[in-house]
Amino acid sequence: MTRWLGSDPVSLCPCVLVNAVKFNIRAESPRDYADLLLSFLHFPNVVVYDFARGLVSHTNLREKERLPFSPHGGRVAAPTPENIASAKKGQLKISLPWLQFEKDPPDVNCHPATGSAEHYALYDTFHQSNTKDETDALRVIGLVPELCGWLNSQKAEQLFSEMRKNNYFMNCFSPSSHIFLMRNVLHHHNERVNQLALKKLRTVCKGEITLDALGKAILDTQADVSTNEHEVATDVSTTHHCGNHCEALTMTSNIRPCRTSWTPGVHNPLQEQLVNYVLDETRPMEELIVKDCHTCLTRENLVTLGLRREMDSMVGNACLRLIHEAMQYQGKDVFVVDLHVPPTWLAPNHCDARLSLPVDSHKRDALIFPLWIPGHFVLCVSDSLVLIAKPP
């Protein structure tokens, strides 16, 4: 959510669809955005704005009985000195899993798309450093892993820059004509965005894709019957799509220590289902499987994890980052060396390995060094400054 055309506030979703617009004959202010938010049938769970603190103050004063922005006054965590200090150091992470998977059971008076009744106001990336209030350190997008690297406010600025090209002829119209034509322009913009999104989804997903009443893309998972003799026949009773149930079970925040996951010879149906789905070469190679920070991995990348092929280091780094996050959720402070670094410690470079370690290495619970040996990896974990080789 941001300003546009000097005086016309608009509401956008992350995919740059325009949800609402208000036309003013004066400069825009937080009360105009509060008008837009309060006019929605379902109040958004996360709002991004240039002046988030002012928006929260105005909106909560107008609705004192229900306080739209809560808990913590729209901050992602309680404004305690410890949380503020951790947020400034970049050590605080607040997970909001319902942004990816609907909350079950849902809250009372929740948003139908998320199942949550929590509402937060965060600062736009370009303005998060302009505030002087220390508690605003808890309104940073980077504190929420589900938003970090996914929510791109530059798209909104690009849209506004494009629409400003219409200012010259739009300002020549009367107010009523201006409103009518602007709504028409925005409608065609939304239609174009939806069609492009559906086109991209259809290139990586099989089946019929439609938009529901909330604007979400719905994939028909019914098996397609094909008579192409070159296609590989599969048993539908033994082949399952990895849907939300698999994604929820494999979320980093839901991973718990489980010996059966890595003990040889132990039958794990879920692991087998996930591995078979990812390494299935009959499926589209360009299908997006993993999105980790700024790294997007398709099936073509991930088949290097198996099928007796050499593994791409980018894939290995993404896997180790997931391990790092899982250990953080368990309260362990670890440091994982990038896969591209250990080879430089060997001949002919002979780089000093200590230069690759953080200055606070002695305070970490573990230091993980992925070392490549033909055929497999060996994880070397430091324990009281003694390196112990852990065979796979």
Q: What would your notes on this structure say?
A:
It is a single chain. 28% of the residues lie in helices and 14% in strands. With 392 residues, it is α+β, with helices and mostly antiparallel strands. It has four domains: 10-172, no CATH class; 174-222, no CATH class; 226-309, no CATH class; 333-392, no CATH class. A four-stranded mixed β-sheet has the order 9-10-11-12, with helices on one face. The chain has a two-stranded antiparallel sheet with strand order 1-2. The longest helix is centred in the middle third of the chain and has 30 residues, at 175-204. The protein is globular. InterPro entries: HMGXB3.
Largest sheet: 4 strands, mixed
Distance between the termini: 48 Å
Q: Evaluate the radius of gyration.
A: 25 Å
Morphology: globular
Mean pLDDT: 76
Give the helices and strands, then pairings.
Layout: E1 10-12, E2 18-21, H1 30-39, E3 46-49, H2 52-62, H3 81-89, E4 120-123, H4 154-163, H5 167-170, H6 175-204, E5 209-211, E6 217-219, H7 244-249, H8 269-278, E7 288-292, E8 295-298, H9 299-302, H10 313-329, E9 334-336, E10 366-373, E11 376-383, E12 386-390
Parallel strand pairs: 3-4, 9-10
Antiparallel strand pairs: 1-2, 5-6, 7-8, 10-11, 11-12
Helix pairs in contact: 1-2
Give a short overview.
The protein has 392 residues and is an alpha+beta fold. It is 28% helix and 14% strand. The strands form five sheets. Strands 9-10-11-12 form a four-stranded mixed β-sheet, with helices on one face. A two-stranded antiparallel sheet has the order 1-2. Strands 3-4 form a two-stranded parallel sheet.
